Amino acid sequence: MKNRIGIVGGGQLGRMMAFAAKQLGFTVSVIDPTSKSPAGQVVDYQIVAAYNDEQAIRELAKISDYLTFEIELANAAVLDDLAKKGLSIHPSAKTLTIIKDKFGQKQFLRQAGIPVADFEAVETKEDIETVAKKFGYPMVLKARFDAYDGRGNAVIRNAKGIEAALKKLSGRKLYVEKNVSFTKELAVVVARNTKGEIAIYPVVETIHKNNICHLVIAPAPIDQKIATKASKLARKTMQQLQGAGVFGIEMFVTKDGNVLINEIAPRVHNSGHYTTEACVTSQFEQHIRAVTGLPLGSTKMKMPAAVMINILGERTGQVDAKGLEKVLAIPNVSVHIYGKMETKLERKMGHITVIGETVAECLLIAKKSRKLLSI
Ligand SMILES: Nc1ncnc2c1ncn2[C@@H]1O[C@H](COP(=O)(O)OP(=O)(O)O)[C@@H](O)[C@H]1O
Ligand SMILES: [Mg+2]
Fold this sequence. Notes:
Shape: globular
CATH architecture of the largest domain: 2-Layer Sandwich
Number of domains: 3
Number of helices: 12
Structural class: alpha+beta
Bound molecules: adenosine-5'-diphosphate, magnesium ion
Mean pLDDT: 96
CATH topology of the largest domain: D-amino Acid Aminotransferase, Chain A, domain 1
Strand content: 25-35%
Largest sheet: 9 strands, antiparallel
Oligomer: single chain
Low-confidence stretches: none
Number of strands: 20
CATH class of the largest domain: Alpha Beta
């Protein structure tokens, strides 16, 4: 029986994917540069190496029947070679290659007729000034590669701000985006299995603080028309991409009710963490089902509402989780701690999910619970 899964990346996403895989009886191995990584602690075997280390990927391939990812990095040449030798790799190297370059991803979406904010590649201060004449300020300068949790973004408010933004992202390949004055940010988690079946989760609202996901509200408190638009756009986007797996699609809603795609993540997504408690099939189990050729599960919510709040580090140092006993005394609250050894300012250390009858009630309890915890 083919029951060995290899995951490139051993962070919290790999850890939660591993829990789901173990539940279904798979054995799991991961690659992560940090020993005792969040996933490394709960899987059968961890290879300690960089995500892109060719030899490590080949070693992981040798002990896996299915190879998948928790990050949007990929050594496409190696993956293509392994795929040719018959290893099942999802999402496909082609899709990972498109997505890992944020600029290339935007070009791909635009060519597919999917609405995105205006964008242009830039290198120098002069390039940015030229684009500013077209887009106007503010603009968002973004790193094309390896950007996450807002760490690859710098907002440019006026011509004077260009240098500081370039300094923040120095040494990286860049592009600039028109600022979208959105009314809400939404996200849709979508799954496709190796048979081509697609399953779409409810449209959720994401609320960011300092460019990092802070809260997720399910279902998004929006007009049904906008939810339908977002859902259709997610399906259309999926149809443009190859390969199986769970994808997180981030979107902006504008004042006039338009929906634009912000970015695609070719993996389980922070906006889908609520599904563990709130949906019939969690995004993590769905991903395992999708990449191993199993039927997809129902994406329906089991309760009318759910809110997820991230637990971000508030200091730098060794982890010292406090307040768990107070939070867990509240009904309908679930806590996830990722097992990271070090806490850092704004690092994702865990999350809390609250399920209930109304979004308002869940939101209140989520915020209260977060205040009771420190890590
Ligand atoms: N063009 C834009 N206009 C307005 N806000 C933006 C724009 N691009 C990004 N943001 C804000 O920054 C957040 C993080 O940006 P994103 O490009 O999604 O990077 P990351 O990969 O770090 O999530 C978004 O969720 C949004 O709140
Ligand atoms: Mg994002």
